[in-house]
Amino acid sequence: DTACKNRPLDLVFIVDSSRSVRPEEFEKVKIFLSEMIDTLDVGERTTRVAVMNYASTVKVEFPLRTYFDKASLKEAVSRIEPLSAGTMTGLAIQTAMDEVFTEEMGTRPATFNIPKVVIVVTDGRPQDQVQEVAASARTAGIEIYAVGVDRADMQSLRIMASEPLDEHVFYVETYGVIEKLTSKFRETFCAVNECALGTHGCQQVCVSNGASYRCDCYEGHTLNPDKKTCSAVDTCAPGRHECDQLCVSNNGSYVCDCYEGYTLNPDKKTCSAMDMCAPGRHDCAQVCLSNDGSYSCSCYEGYTLNPDKKTCSAADVCAPGRHDCEQLCVRGDLFYTCDCHQGYTLNPDRKTCSRAITSSLVTTEESCKCEAIVALQDLVTSRLEALSSK
């Protein structure tokens, strides 16, 4: 029962109450109608029911717009009285088309796609031309079921019923057993809930849709082309996330991350460059230079960066090209001073040198000796310069 629920219908019963139907038999017909109503999902938005009574004339006992609950329908059925003479089945079907299957009388618009169904119950042969009228009704989209009882003309039933005939033509021997058709019609009008039966094959979600179903997926998943299985959505696809730098997919969801040298901001989406020169974040021996999420090492003045690009060594300040001393460079701890060779003195600029004055070493009385001393001094100075250059 939980897997089967009749689909919404606009259902019209057309009941033969001609002279051949005895009063007690007509009561059996009304019981059949009541039991049929019990099997239906009756309501304004589900199945609407109308009943027509015919013999030589046709009477609309109540149209589709009148009752929307089972109790009221069954009460109205219990009050129906037979009409006696004649069997104008064709007229009854034509009246159903003209007076019952109209929006004014409760039939729902074609856009609703609600099936229009007629069940004709008769025990005789139609006394009018039913073939053309029935064909016209079927062309108009009305599905016709023909129920024959006892002396009913089977050929006439087949003429008026919809195809396939073996699903639309029923016969019972007497009105006393007509109630057994209730289960047949219940099966006929049943909309099987495949989702409840568990035969749907949907991987995640089954959505019942009247007599059919469709598969769906949990949030964060999409339905595959096979319309049954699901795959996690690539939440990191362009346009699907709000991450500033890196998106990490996580089973139908995502989290944001940052490139090396950046940290995730409190909004969990954007990134800011780290202070890579903060204590403990670098391994520079002397100076750390931050550079947009990265860093480089440097050294204090007087030191040079070693090949490992991290440690520093004191510079050779007296190496060629590193000082501006004219003669001698004297290296200190980090700095240098200039000096001069023997016989020269350092000028006030502290860089260049001038020859020392030696005239004070010679007296006027020893002029001859003086020339010899000067010559010797020049020779000694020359030799010293030669040795210094070596």
From TrEMBL:
One of its GO terms (cellular component) is extracellular region. Signal peptide: none annotated. GO terms for molecular function: calcium ion binding. PROSITE patterns: EGF_2, VWFA. The keyword Ribonucleoprotein does not apply. It holds the Pfam family FXa_inhibition. It is found in: Secreted. PANTHER family: COLLAGEN ALPHA, MATRILIN-3. Major component of the extracellular matrix of cartilage and may play a role in the formation of extracellular filamentous networks. This is Matrilin-3. The lineage of its organism: Eukaryota, Metazoa, Chordata, Craniata, Vertebrata.
